[in-house]
């Protein structure tokens, strides 16, 4: 990546003074090239997408599994999400919003469950006051405390070598003392903890082997029964392995690109169609940043949870293959995932069990899709190599605004009819209409997006002269090209 610096100010001033004011760019040192335009745009898109993606927790390492293949699998998993984000950023944003709403709800549920468990333990302490403790002490459990949670074991040995029955409680005399010292007893469950849950951050272990990730219902029940206390906020933050420097550079690159685009518009210089598309990506990835603000990034593995008995699982409905495809597209697949049969949570799992969260996430994603399309409309009056390309750009830009808008208008009507109308026939008719609109809109939207992507590069073959002129004051500031 080359770097343009101001170097010797006297020389730069001399070069700037000799620059032609016509719509040409005769001094290559202070002008843009087609290569720098493409390079700057692609670097900005990659920086936005790569740093915005917060993948779920990978499966824990099993005995005999080579660390090399775990690293390769992690990189490939991230690349997969990045590719999907580049192709359908609105769909990934819907996943991010769905996960944010789930994490917020889970945080509230866990905090209520913690209060319930604490009250039970305090009531028990009041009952035991004045009573003579038994030989081993009621509920006394010894042993090493796990990394971030208080987990019970199946059996522990006391000082005399006798085995004590494992107590499935975090609110136990010795356990409370340990957690008080580590600061965990003073902690509260928050949305950040909720993210840790829905992204597969807590994994059930038995006999030293990983079994399956714990669902939000599992964790809530374990917290309510007193078996798990919250990790501290600092511990959750430390899960994130993303590099602060790389994220900072990505943000700086993105902001610099936006500043240059604004400056070119103010000075009346052309902005290429590729740069317009890049600006559209910055809009939608900023929304991803907001949704995933509290989600740990690039977590290496889950926290181990070992309890004597897991809560009874909720029933998971089975769906046909075509229903599964619809649920994946619409973001409703979470309700049909049985985590007790999985090594890790699925790649695009959001932890949502509430249709309301899914619908809310879809509406937000549709709004983002409309904003994404509206940015492309900024090139409405730009110069194109041919009138046909200008017409295709205009029609495609309108399509990626209008098609999401049509679906956005139908979703609330469908929800209202489904919840208030006693006429099942009317509901069925409306569902069929919605399905038809979606079936027609989806391929048209994909086609329009594909055409805009192709035109963003094809129009580079014939740019107006002023497109190559750089904003002169930006040359005085050291920056990445």
TrEMBL record:
Protein name per its UniProtKB record: Uncharacterized protein
Protein source organism: Artomyces pyxidatus
Origin superkingdom: Eukaryota
């Amino acid at each position: 990546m080359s770097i343009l610096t101001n170097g010797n100010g006297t020389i730069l001033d001399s070069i700037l003074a000799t620059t032609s004011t016509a719509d040409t760019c005769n001094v290559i040192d202070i002008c843009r090239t087609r290569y720098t335009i493409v390079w700057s745009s692609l670097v900005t898109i990659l920086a936005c997408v790569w740093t915005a993606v917060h993948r779920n927790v990978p499966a824990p390492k099993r005995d005999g599994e080579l660390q090399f293949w775990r690293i390769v699998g992690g990189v490939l998993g991230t690349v997969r999400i990045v590719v999907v984000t580049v192709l359908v950023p609105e769909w990934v944003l819907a996943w991010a919003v769905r996960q944010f709403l789930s994490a917020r709800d889970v945080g509230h549920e866990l905090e209520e469950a913690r209060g319930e468990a604490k009250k039970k333990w305090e009531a028990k302490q009041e009952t035991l006051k004045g009573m003579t403790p038994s030989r081993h002490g009621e509920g006394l459990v010894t042993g090493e405390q796990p990394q971030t949670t208080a987990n019970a074991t199946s059996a522990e040995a006391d000082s005399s070598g006798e085995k004590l029955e494992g107590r499935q409680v975090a609110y136990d005399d010795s356990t409370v003392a340990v957690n008080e010292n580590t600061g965990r007893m003073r902690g509260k469950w928050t949305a950040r903890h909720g993210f840790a849950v829905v992204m597969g951050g807590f994994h059930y272990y038995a006999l030293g082997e990983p079994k399956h990730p714990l669902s939000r219902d599992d964790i809530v029940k374990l917290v309510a029964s007193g078996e798990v206390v919250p990790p501290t906020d600092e511990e959750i933050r430390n899960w994130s392995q993303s590099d602060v420097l790389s994220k900072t550079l990505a943000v700086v690159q993105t902001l610099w690109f936006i500043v240059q685009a604004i400056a070119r518009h103010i000075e009346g210089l052309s902005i290429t169609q590729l740069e317009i598309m890049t600006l559209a990506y910055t809009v939608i990835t900023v929304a991803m940043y907001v949704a995933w603000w509290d989600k740990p990034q690039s977590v290496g593995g889950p926290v181990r949870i070992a309890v004597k008995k897991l809560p009874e699982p909720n029933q998971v409905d089975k769906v046909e293959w075509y229903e599964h495809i619809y649920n994946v597209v619409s973001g409703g697949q979470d309700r049909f995932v049985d985590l007790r049969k999985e090594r890790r949570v699925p790649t695009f799992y959001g932890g949502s069990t509430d249709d309301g969260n899914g619908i809310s996430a879809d509406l937000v994603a549709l709004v983002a899709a409309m904003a994404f399309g509206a940015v492309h409309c900024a090139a409405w009056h730009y110069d194109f190599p041919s009138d046909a390309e200008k017409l295709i750009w205009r029609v495609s830009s309108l399509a990626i605004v209008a098609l999401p808008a049509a679906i956005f208008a139908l979703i609330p009507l469908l929800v209202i009819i489904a919840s208030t109308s006693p006429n099942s026939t009317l509901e069925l008719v409306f569902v069929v209409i919605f399905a038809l609109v979606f079936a027609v809109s989806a391929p048209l939207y994909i086609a329009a997006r594909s055409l805009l992507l192709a035109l963003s590069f094809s129009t580079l073959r014939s740019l107006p002269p002023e497109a190559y002129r750089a904003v002169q004051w930006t040359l005085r500031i050291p920056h990445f090209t």
